[in-house]
Amino acid sequence: APAVTAAARELALTGALGVATRVWARVPVEPAYREALPDVRFDDTLDPAALDAWVRGATGGLIERLPLAITGETLLALVNVLALKARWERPFDTRRTRDLPFTDASGTTRPVATMARDVPLADVWTVDGTYVVELRCTGEEGGGEGGDGARVRFVLGEPGAGAARVLPAGWADRTAGTRPEADRVTVALPRLALRTRITVTGQLPALGVRLATSDAADFSGLSPEPLAISDVVQEAVLKVAEEGVEAAAVTVVAMRAAGAIPPPQRLLHLAFDRPFGIVVLPAAGDVPLFAAWQADAPADPADPA
């Protein structure tokens, strides 16, 4: 429990990043468990409308409701929210945004709204043939003074390279990267809006979590009632535009009863015109807050959902 609290407080040092965890329960929760998590609010009811309202408020409206149906068999729900809404340190110039072709994973090409700007050479590197471009956010949404801002890395692999090969470059130590042989770097980056919902329950055994989902589960430190994990679901939203980035993730664990060189310059232009990855990192550390893979033609966040 102290490690959980310390990790959440460290994440909260990243400017414009909101971190919140809340537990709703129909069963008693041990006092020692509550005391061990001083930053977590515990509610003794399990009202679906209240959960939806909390999720909506905690994510600034990016996620409208809990990504899991609360039923009569749900005895406890642990909900964790990460929400980021931050401006770029150097916003894109909207006058340079124009429609450019994007070829998706199926080979279909269509025009998408694409932003453009120069990027400092120090913020571009390659890892095993994958280009990494890091853009920094300000510490607060409005660009005021706050903690250090999040870092957003866009990763572009060779044509045809998939997510499993490309995305790890986004959280690799940048000191392991190789600087490009260029004097100036420009990027063409699509505006995008991504939304995913994943049921993680089936992947838990591969992560070594087996007893917790069975009738042999032991959560006696949490509640005197016998409990087992019934569902683990995560919904995430990511939006990238000229002004900045918005991202939110809601994870639900539900429990049931158990049985500089003078011209000419060498120009490197990176066109994100094919599937690419996005990794959002905290101000310090290389553990991703959000990771996404844009395989289809990006949806414009300015378009109605």
TrEMBL record:
GO terms for molecular function: peptidase activity; serine-type endopeptidase inhibitor activity. Pfam families: Serpin (PF00079). Keywords: Hydrolase, Protease. GO terms for cellular component: extracellular space. Residues 9-297 form the Serpin domain. It comes from the Bacteria. GO terms for biological process: proteolysis. Signal peptide: none annotated. Coiled coil: none annotated. Gene3D superfamilies: Alpha-1-antitrypsin, domain 1 (2.30.39.10), Antithrombin, subunit I, domain 2 (3.30.497.10). Belongs to the serpin family. This is Serine protease. It comes from Streptomyces nanshensis.
